[in-house]
């Protein structure tokens, strides 16, 4: 009885009945309603026609393979850039530490320095 | 759906073959979606590339709770809106000039019945607001459910349903008006 009352809630489900994405329960409700509602059956036909037209209208060729190649190239060049940036940052850090150490502005902990001297002595 | 999730997992491992499958499935949908906001083929193609690069980089963050389509098209929408804003104009939908020129050049004798019908619907769709048009494209071209569209647009499901309802009513009105004019 309720299924045959033409509510806006049921009408609002029709587009998604057309694209077949309703849940099982929603689909069953819509189908039960459609049996007894000529207005909604007409609306359903209009929506099916509308969907076909939207697909036709929107179906524009996209240069898929060319775009794919370009995208993969951009991914690789981005990764290369990241690695190059990282290498450059490591080099810059190492260089700065080296310069500061040489100029005596960079103090190494005495224990670490002593360990360094000890290793040097053992190597002869 | 299961395939797509598997491809995303393979993309996390750096599998370019799986990425290519995702790309071929989504590029036309992203392109069409971006055209709603940008109306520029070159820019829409850029959005396709930027979106898919974001998919490559962000595959590890994909959450299985959301559908792949909602996730990918949500990224695409943000990229398209960013570009539209950067261009310094509010997102608006204007039909491709080429389409208009092509149909303007054709004489009525040259147009088949189907072409006339497509032209009518095209003109009517062009008059919808971007909010109405995006719901229509996502539902009828990309076949998304209302809950998926709500995720893409970041709005309540009720808003999606009501936008579709009004878009359809507006379209029906426009088409019946145009039909009346031509008679």
Secondary-structure blueprint of this entry?
The complex is a heterodimer of chains A (124) and B (183).
Chain A: H1 8-18, H2 24-36, H3 38-58, H4 64-102, H5 110-123
Chain B: H1 2-12, H2 16-38, H3 41-58, H4 68-86, H5 97-105, H6 113-126, H7 130-140, H8 146-153, H9 157-182
Helix pairs in contact in B: 1-2, 2-3, 2-4, 2-7, 3-4, 4-8, 6-9, 7-9, 8-9
Structure description:
The complex is a heterodimer of chains A (124) and B (183). Chain A is mainly α and 124 residues long. Helix content of chain A is 79%, strand content 0%. Chain A is built from five helices and no strands. Chain A starts with 7 loop residues before the first helix and ends with a helix. The longest helix of chain B has 26 residues, at 157-182. The chains are: A mainly alpha (124), B mainly alpha (183).
Report the biggest beta sheet of chain A as strand number plus sense, adding barrel if it closes. none
What's the N-to-C terminus distance of chain B? 46 Å
The tally of beta strands of chain A, per DSSP, is: 0
Model regions low in confidence, pLDDT < 50 over at least 5 residues of chain A: none
**Chains forming the largest contact:** A-B, 34 and 38 residues
| Low-pLDDT regions of chain B | 91-105
List the total number of helices of chain B.
9
Based on CA atoms alone, the radius of gyration of chain B comes out at: 18 Å
Category from helices, strands and their pairing of chain A: mainly alpha
| Relative helix content of chain B | over 70%
Q: What is the subunit arrangement here?
A: heterodimer
Secondary-structure element order of chain B, as H and E?
HHHHHHHHH
End-to-end gap of chain A: 100 Å
- Overall average residue pLDDT of chain B: 82
